[in-house]
Design a protein that fits this description.
By secondary structure, the chain is of the alpha+beta class. Helix content is 22%, strand content 28%. It starts with 12 loop residues before the first strand and ends in a 9-residue tail after the last helix.
């Protein structure tokens, strides 16, 4: 097991730097490293370890991506893991993101996705790999797994309807390993957000 270069945690991010040297970082230290590379303040995205929504406790995880900051609310374990994601801009603080994440969790969980054997008008379906056959998929609905055949049977009930969808990332598996080449990652953020950071009239009061 590789140890994080910056702390004693498990280093699941295996990063090859431009000089060819490979380092191992944990999730938090990788996010901090990527923020520094992008010229961002990692502390801006500080968030609580968990949130409570409608009486349910969700763990929270954050990931820095090229296009923004993803916050995951998740609960359950293994096959029953529920996951909801909110992606904020680099200018949005972790505190602001938690308000948006709570609202999204509340909207998505105030009623079950399926009732009386039928899908509701709105809901959330997780797409996960089948444990026994990596060529097959399982579908996670309200904490229960359905096979491809079972999910198709559910859709047949709704023949004549439109299935309107929005794809979002699920929280990464805690056992995931990430192999990254630093040369493929940007230095600094591009577009309007970069202009804001460089603007001398832009300060913390604007955030």
């Amino acid at each position: 097991m590789d140890t994080c270069k910056s702390c004693n945690a498990w280093g699941n991010h295996h990063l090859t730097l431009e000089d060819g040297k490979q380092i191992h970082l944990c999730d938090d230290c990788y996010n901090a490293w990527f923020c520094e590379r992008l010229g961002l303040d990692y502390g801006l995205y500080k968030h609580p370890a968990s949130i409570s929504v409608l009486g349910k406790r969700f763990m929270v995880r954050m990931e820095i991506f090229v296009s923004g900051v993803a916050y995951f609310a998740y609960r359950g374990k293994g096959k029953r893991l529920e996951s909801i994601c909110f992606v904020g801009s680099f200018l949005m603080s972790g505190a602001e993101a938690m308000k948006e994440l709570r609202s999204k969790v509340a909207f998505r969980t105030y009623r079950p996705t399926m009732e009386e054997g039928m899908l509701n008008d709105m809901g959330s379906v997780g797409i996960v790999e089948n444990d026994q056959n990596s060529d097959k998929l399982d579908f996670l609905i309200d904490g229960k797994r359905y096979s491809e055949e079972q999910f198709l049977d559910l859709l047949r009930i709704h023949s004549g309807s439109n299935l309107v969808y929005l794809l979002e990332q699920r929280v990464p598996n805690p056992d995931s390993q990430w192999v990254t080449l630093a040369e493929h990652l940007p230095k600094g953020i591009a577009g309007d957000e970069e202009d804001l950071w460089d603007d001398p009239d832009w300060d913390d009061e604007n955030l």
